[in-house]
Amino acid sequence: MKSLRLRTSFLVLAVLAIAGIALAANTGTVAGRVTDRQTGEPLIGASVVVDGTELGNATDLNGQYQIINIPPGTYSLTASYTGYNDLKSTGVLVVQDNATTVDFKLSVTVIELKKVIEVVAKKKELVTRSAVSVERVITSEDFKRLPVTSLSDLVGMQAGVSQSNRGGWTHIRGGRFNDVAYLVDGVSAQDALVGTLWSSPKPTTDALQSVVVITGGFDAEYGSAMSGIIKAVTKEGGTRTTGRLGYTTDDVFPANSGYNYGYNRLTFSLGGPTPIWKRLRYFLSTEYLKTDDASGIRYKINSPRGEYAVEGKLTLQMPKEFGLTREGLKFTLDGYHSNYQWQSWGNSYKYYLAGLFANRVRSQKANFTINHLLSPTTVYEVKVGAFQTSFIRTVRNSAAEAADTAGFWGTLRKTGIWNRYIFRAEDWVFNYQKYSDYELAHGGTDTIKSMRDAVLKLYRSFWLDANGNPVYAHAGKKNFSSGYAMIDNPWGVAGLFVTEGDERTWHYRSTEQVLGKIDLTHTVSKIHEIKTGLDVTSYSLSEYTNSLPWDMNPFWDAYNYKPLVVAGYVQDRADFEDLVVRAGIRLDYLDSKAKVRAFPESLGAQPNIADSLLPVPAKYRLAPRLGLSYPITERIKFRFSYGHFYKNPSFSDLYTYADRTAAELRSRGNVIVGNADMGAEKTIAYEMGFDAQLTDIFAFDLTAFYKDVFDLSGVRTVQALPQPYTMYYNVEYARIQGLEATMTKVLDQYWSSRIGYTFQIAKGTASTADAQYQRSTPRQLDYFLDQDVRHSFHGDLAFSFPSDFGFVPMRDFEAAGVLNYSTGTPYTPTDQKGNQIGLSNSARLPSTYQLDGRLGKDFTFAGMSLSINCDITNVLNTEIITGVFAATGKPDNTGRVITPLEFSAAGFLFGDPFYHPARDYDHDGFITREEQFVSYLKAYDDANISPTRYGPPRKIKLGLSLAF
C-alpha cells in the first residue's frame, strides 16, 4: 500500500512537471466586454490595450476580451474600434492572482467631427469576483499616507492578524508565528531554520509596489504555510526617471526631553529607463537606519541598532519584432543585500551591557526571471535564484572594535556612520588557519580536517587558557563566566546584577538556498484558466552553538545538512459568470537527507547499538484545495473555501543536536534533540464569507473560519536508559475558530478609512514547539494558546486634500490616524514559588490600545515635490502592558515580601568583601541590618521592575523627503 501511494504521488508530480510549473504568481488579469453604447451590441475585434505597456488583446464574437500577465499596479486601459471614439478607463487596479473587470461602452464617431478620446475614471472594484478567500490589498500609497515605516507595521493592521514579540512575530488567525509564508516577488523570504521573516531579506519600503495579505483559503499554488500568506511585489523602473530621497529623525529634540531616541533613517530610490536602451529599465532602493534604542519599550534604554539595505531590479522588455517575442518577452534580474545589528538589553545587565550578547543578521539574494507571453492566452515564467541569510548572537569583542579604525569600515566607525560589530571568537570559529596556528604554538597537533570537527575545540581555545580551566590565569583578567555575585553596581547589593564576565550564549546559524521554478498559465476558454507548477529548492543549513563556552562539558552543537524540497500543483479557475470555482491539488516533497537513531531508548548500550543510525525516508503530502465564489450581483457575493494545508516543521526542529553521540547525550541530557523523521504539520480549514460593495465608495466583508491543526511540532521525553532526554515529535494539536469583519471606505470627498474587527478562540496543547519542555506530564487537554487574542480592532482614518483644494493652506495636506485595540493574551498564574495555580493560561494581561498619527504637507516646484511629515507613536501616551509577574498579574510587583529579618544582624564592616559605601547611608563604615534591608529593597525593585513589560510611550519623528 505504501509503495502504491508513493508511485501515485510521484506520478502526480511528474504530470505537474510535464505541464509546466506554478502560476506566474506576481501578475493579474483584466477582463471585460466592449459594446456599442446605444445598442448594447458587442463590438467584435475591438482592441483593448494597457497604456504604457505592450499588453493588450482583441474582443471575440461576444465582445469579450481578456489580458493576462499584468504586473500589479494601477493602470489606464484604452479601447478602440473603427468608427467609434476611443475610450480610456483610468485608475484600474490590478491585483496579484485575480481578475479585474473593466467594461467599455463606445460611442459612434460623428462624421463631421474628428475622432476623440473619451476618458472615464474606473470606479474602484471593492469586491473581487474571482477571490474565494479574504485578500487584503496594500498599495504603495498606503505606505505614504499612514504612520507606518515597515511591511510588518502594515500587515499588523489587517483583520485576522496579531503580533507578538514586539512586532517580530506575526500570527494569522491564531496560528503559530512560523505558520505564515512570506513571498517577495514570488520567492520565499524566510529563514528556513526558524521560519521567521525578521532574520531574512525584507524589502525596503520605497521598493514596495503592493502587498497582499491572505488570511485563509489560499490556492494550491501556495505551500509551506498553514495560517496565511503575505505576498509582496517590488517596483520596477518606469518609462521616465523618478527618484526619492527621504530623511526621518527624532534627533531634533533635546537629549533629556524624553523624545530623543537617536533615531535617524535615510532612504533613497531611483528608477527609470537606462540611457543605453529605453527598454532596459532599473529600480534601485536603499535604506539606512541608526538608533540609540530600538526596543520600543516604556522609556529609553541603551539598546542601539543599525541597519542598511540595498535593493535593485533590472527589467528588459524585448520588442515584439525580436525572434520569439510576437507577444512579449521580458527578462528581470533583481538583487538584495542587508546588514542588521543590534545590542540586546537585559535588566540584570543594565550596568554591564558589555557582557550581554549582541546580534547581527546578514542577508543577500539574487534572482533571474524570464517571462514569456506566448500568446494572448498563454504565459510561462522561468525563475532561478539564490538566497543566503546568517544570524550570530554572542558577546561583542570590545577590544577588537576599538582597534578597528583602519580602512573603509574603520572610517565609517570613526565618523559614527556605522559601528561594525565584531564578536568574541567569531574569527576563530570561521578562520581555520588561526586555529591551526594556535594549536601548533601551544604544543598541539593540527589534526582537525573539517570545520564540523573543529568547532568544539575552537570554542574552548578562545575561552580557556593553558591550565584548562575557565578562570583566566593572566593578570588583570576576570572570570569569563558572568555572575551575579559582584557588588559593583549603584546599590552595592550582590546577587541582582551582572557586572563581570560574558553571558553564556554563542550561537550562529546560516541558511543558504538555491531554487528553480517554471511557471505556466493558460486560458483554455473564457471559462477556464489553468495554472500548473513545480519548484525545486536545495538548502544548505548550518548551525554552530555553544551556551557554555568556558565549560569542559558545554551545551554545544554543530551541523550542516542539505535537504531537498520539491513542490508542484495544478489548479483551475473556472468562471461560469454566476459561479467562480477555484479547485486545485498540491504535492509537497521533502528529503531531509539525514539519519535518525535506530534505538533511541538505548543510550547506555554499546556504541555500535546506541549510535546505530537509519536513513530517513523522503516525506510527501497531497493537499486538495477548493474555493467557491457565488456572485449575487456585481457588488455582492458569497464565498466558501476548504483546504488541507501542510508545512514542514522548522528545520531546526529536525536537526538540532540530532547527530550527537549517545555518550554526548548522556553527559548533557537536558537538551532538546531534533527529529529528522518528523512529518509535515497539517491544517484542515474551512471558511465562508460575505462581501458587499454597499456604494461606489463603501464595502463590507464578513468571514467565519474554523481550523483543526494536527501534528504540530512539540517535545516529549524519551524514556531512555540510563538517562531520559527530550526530542521533537509531531504530537501537538490546536483548534481555532472565529470571525473577521472589515468596513472599507475608499478615498472620496477627501477622506478614506478601513475598520477591521477579529473575534477568535485559539486553543491547543502547545503554543510553541518547546512549550512542554521539562514538563513531567505533558498537557493532554487543550488550553488557550499564548496567541489567543480574543478581540482585536484596527482602524485607520486618513484625510487627503488635492493641489486644487479651495482652502489654499490645506492644499496637498494629509492627516492620518491608526487605532489598534486588543484584549490581553493569556498567561499561567503561579504562586510565589513558581508553582502553577489553576489551569494553564487561565489569566490574561490587560487590554491594550494605541493611537498613532501622521501629518504631511507637500510642496510642488520645478517638477519636484517636497514633503514634510510628522509621525507620532502612541499619541495619547497610554500605558501599554505587555508582560506581568505570574504571581501577581502586575508588571511592577513580584509579590515577594521582604523583611529585615532576612539580612545579617552582624552587618558588614569597611573592608569586608560585601561592604559597599552605597549601602552605608550614615557613612560610619558599618552597614547595619536596616541599611541592608533598605538598600536591598531599592536594588530589588531596580532589578525586577523592568521597562520591557511595557509598550512604547509617545514618540515623535519628523521627516523630510524630495521626490521627482
Automatic annotation (TrEMBL):
GO MF terms held by the record: siderophore uptake transmembrane transporter activity
The TonB-dependent receptor plug domain sits at: 134-226
> What keywords appear on the UniProt entry?
Cell outer membrane, Membrane, Receptor, Signal, TonB box, Transmembrane, Transmembrane beta strand, Transport
What is one process in the GO biological process aspect for this record?
siderophore transmembrane transport
Q: Which residues form the TonB-dependent receptor-like beta-barrel domain?
A: 427-870
Q: How does it sit in the membrane?
A: Multi-pass membrane protein
Q: Where is the signal peptide?
A: 1-24
Single GO cellular component term: cell outer membrane
Subcellular location(s) per record: Cell outer membrane
Q: What is this protein called?
A: TonB-dependent receptor
Organism of origin is candidate division WOR-3 bacterium
